[in-house]
Design goal:
alpha/beta, Rossmann fold, Arc Repressor Mutant, subunit A, 2 domains, four-stranded antiparallel β-sheet, 34% helix
Length: 220
């Protein structure tokens, strides 16, 4: 998921956009007030310019990111460094004004660490690979045919390996908050996905009893 939202109204953002797009990233620029209103930003990372966002505003963005699985990279000035505490729950930060090439590489590293998405827009969990650009899934190089919802559910789990999600959370993240189907829908889709990808003794999706499901980062 190589998409980035830059939360900034500062001049000079165009150079950063150019550098990120040159690295193959999809970039959107928003003012802080527009973030929650935009439903298309459930991907990748937020690059948050703290010259435009207060500490309380940054906290709100972090909470929004946690809710939707979005990485947060803060842009701070030298004068703001004292506010970047060890406890600040962000994925990375960079000092501005600075080198856009360095920031671009930081963004790419965050996307790789958080989602396992490489420069080819691939998510890899051991022998399982997901080509995000072409909606293709393979195990040991052999293509797997999934329905769209099966693909979306598998993609979401694979991009959050090791994290446990309840059935209700998966319904909200994959089907949407306005979906009125029961949690049983998730169980049915998980069972179908397993029947297709867990071949030759492979295990990728683990059931956490009385809670939900999680993806095993490297499979087994």
């Amino acid at each position: 998921m190589r998409s980035v939202a830059i939360i900034s109204t500062q001049p000079g953002t165009e150079a950063l956009v150019t550098a990120l797009e040159g690295a193959g990233l999809e970039v959107t620029v928003l003012a802080p007030r527009d973030v929650r209103a935009d439903d298309q930003l459930l991907a990748g990372a937020y690059v948050v310019d703290c010259r435009d966002v207060s500490r309380s505003g940054l906290k709100a963005l972090v909470e929004h990111g946690d809710e939707h699985g979005i990485a947060i990279i803060a842009l701070v000035t030298l004068e703001m460094l004292n506010h970047v505490s060890l406890e600040l729950p962000i994925d990375d930060f960079a000092v501005v004004p600075g080198d856009v090439a360095e920031l671009t590489r930081r963004v790419e590293r965050v996307l790789w660490r958080r989602y396992g998405v490489d420069a080819e827009n691939m998510v890899v969990c051991g022998p399982l690979s997901i080509d995000l650009s072409n909606y293709r899934v393979a195990v040991d190089g052999e293509g797997i045919i999934l329905t769209f919802k099966e693909y979306e559910l598998l993609r979401f789990l694979a991009m959050n390996p090791g994290q446990v999600f309840t059935r209700e959370q998966l319904l909200n993240r994959v089907w949407g908050y306005d979906y009125f189907g029961g949690a049983r829908t998730v169980d049915v889709h998980i069972r179908r996905i397993r029947s297709k990808i867990e071949v030759r003794g492979r295990v990728f999706i683990e059931t956490v009893r009385n809670v939900g499901y999680r993806m095993i980062a490297s499979g087994r």
